[in-house]
Amino acid sequence: MDVSKNKKMLTASAIAATAAVTVSAPAVMADSHQFEDVNDRYTEAVDFLVEQGATQGYTETTFGTYMPIKRVDAAVQLANVLGLDIDADADTGFNDVPARAEAEVAALKEAGITEGKTSDTFGANDLITRGELAIWIQEGFGLEPTTDTIDFDDVSNRYYKAVQALVDHGITNGVSETEFGVDMEAKRGDYAVFLHRAAEATDDDYELALMHTNDTHGNIGNIAETKTAVDNFRGKNPASLLLSGGDVFSGTLYFQEFLGQADLDFMNQLGYDAMSFGNHEFDLGAGENGHEALAEFVNNAEFPFVASNVDFSEDPLFDDMDKTDIVTADAKDGQIYSGFTKKVKGEEVGIFGLTTEETADISSPENITFSDYIEEAEAMVQAFEDRGVDKVIALTHLGLNDNPEYDNDEVLAEEVDGIDIIVGGHTHTEIPEPRFVDKDEPTVIVQAGGNNDNLGTLEVEFDSNGVITDYEGELVELDGLPKDESFAEQLEPYTEQVQELQEEEIGVSAEVPLNGVREDVRTGETNLGNLITDGMLWKAQQINPETQIAVSNGGGIRTSIDEGPITLGEILEVMPFGNELGIMEIQGSEFMEALEHSVSTAPTAGGQFLHVAGMKFEYDSSQPAGERIVSAEVLQDDGTYEPLMEDEMYYVASNLFTIQGGDDYDMFAEVYEDNRVSEPGFVDYDVFTEYLQTQGDSVSPEVEGRIVDVNQ
Hints:
The protein is α/β, with parallel strands linked by helices. 30% of the residues lie in helices and 21% in strands.
């Protein structure tokens, strides 16, 4: 993907050893070639060479993508891409250079980019190695190393500077983790990619590529597909970042069993560059062991964390890793910073983190506190500017556009200048195309959804002042991608242990069958529907004691639970979707409209049929849809019921699928869009399990007359 493809061609200067040369910027026309052997990996690079007049291919129909390249052909392509002064009458002094390439080889020699094999031979027909090309490219484009980090076994001092420069500028990562392939014959296709990327790296504009995840919540069952997606993107963008917007914790049995360490195993191997904290990272803080699981997670991470508005100073577990009082250019793995700078393709990029202040109310941070996100963001932008850094990423867990009483990314983008990219989380929002906030210093917002469904990708182009001039991004759906064999094999032991856990009993027995039969839960009250909504209301009232009602769609109840000991596996079969808890502030008239929708298809089964707790209602299925509710009453603290008042406001808990408009609950979706929803985010099967374990050794729920069809 070439984010500059719609721009006019620009130029950049590259200083060679003895001469200045002009490099044509990589603006290309899509599909400008008709070579049969060029696949997606090589298309942009080959298009670029064709546009530069650097090659006409190996034949009329083939580029020779996988063929080794001769020194003379490599010289012709490099001279044309660099835009050297090519004199048709120039004499190279070499006796083996064909007339068609004499001028280009002479230009390279004059610029000091390369010499011949001997004083009178260039080695024109010799095959060139990757190591030699690294030196040519580094010299020709004037690329300087920006770090001293490569550790390839086959790179000697002769090649070290050139290879380090190519790695630093995102041109290549070598043929493996341990080898650059110095002595390997270079392929024509790979050389095309190197030239294209080198031209991009020396363009006046700067391009930054990144991948992002958020709210993965222990969903590592498809981590082998994640590895494939990451490798595919890095294949085209070697210097790209990989960032997490938080909420790795909570959500699946992988988390319950391994407390984040299974996720971290794969995150370390994937090579994350930074992570911010989500609210669920603090869920275990109220337990006997406090934040030990989180501290262990941070300590074992092979990447740094960012948290500019989180104060860890009162929790001694984080004393050795809390560096939030500094902004550094040398961030260490397993440490927490307000923000840090990272050199990417030769330029410094600032990364800082923000976590929703709502965490104090919806999680258990105990001795950890949260400060105003706008103030901290402004301070971080200033800190980066003071260091001359003009490309800034906010790695946030605020939510895209949820309750602005606390915080969200849209407000952040509007109110704080100097943030170029917001990589967000918390609301599980799938943003298929990046949101562009147009202002003097524009901001691009991305978020990848949740539960590891997608890998987010983004490419952004900056001008020389660090202002975004172009961008392109997408969500790569992981379902259906090939599995990385190594990751798939490594996942097996974790999965086997989780499968054993599914068979474990939770310590509670059902004295009666819990009815989740599809036809029953979609047409009327059942004892399982009552039990589930009772649990939702119980959890919601811990977060917001004013919550009076809980509702759950019948379509979310997938099966029954037999009489006898209840297992985790049975609970997961009942609610397999991992829906999360939300609390709406809704007017009685809006809620009455929802009740009408709930029974609109009765007695025909409908997934929208609502089970309820904290209230009861009657309806008449013989009446027209929309005119069926006969009465609706809300349970009071003293055990009595009062009529639902259409002009009063109520706090109503449900799952986010329903709240966000699932099953055609448009009235709930409007409440959500109106920012009247709190999203504590607790997963349904966790809530249900916890609630059952508060009920003693057994449960025997009944149908209580909460929902009555007066026509039956």
